[in-house]
Amino acid sequence: MIRVNGEPHILVSSVSVLLKELGLDKATVATALNGVFVPSAKRDTALLKSGDEVEILAPMQGG
């Protein structure tokens, strides 16, 4: 089990697989694994293990 934005989630292999499973693989988002930024180019190799925490943030526009 991992946590995604504070919510429990079934463990998958990598950050990129997680984004695909959540339907966010084509979205522009920022990702962090255990508090460390994961650039989009490294998401395939950012492997997940039980207990990991992933944060997924979408950019916001303000006015």
Outline the structure in words.
The protein is mostly beta strands and 63 residues long. Helices cover 11% and strands 29% of the residues. The longest helix is centred in the N-terminal third of the chain and has 7 residues, at 15-21.
Helix and strand topology:
Elements: E1 2-4, E2 7-9, H1 15-21, E3 30-33, E4 36-38, E5 53-57
Parallel strand pairs: 1-5
Antiparallel strand pairs: 1-2, 3-4, 3-5
Structural class: mainly beta
Major β-sheet profile: 5 strands, mixed
Average the pLDDT over all residues and give the rounded result: 95
Total strand count, please? 5
Q: What's the overall geometry?
A: globular
Tell me roughly what share of residues is in helical segments: 10-25%
Radius of gyration: 11 Å
Low-confidence stretches: none
Distance N to C terminus: 38 Å
The quaternary state of the protein chains shown equals: single chain
Strand order of the largest sheet: 2-1-5-3-4
Q: What portion of residues belong to β-strands?
A: 25-35%
* Count of individual helical segments: 1
Order of helices and strands: EEHEEE
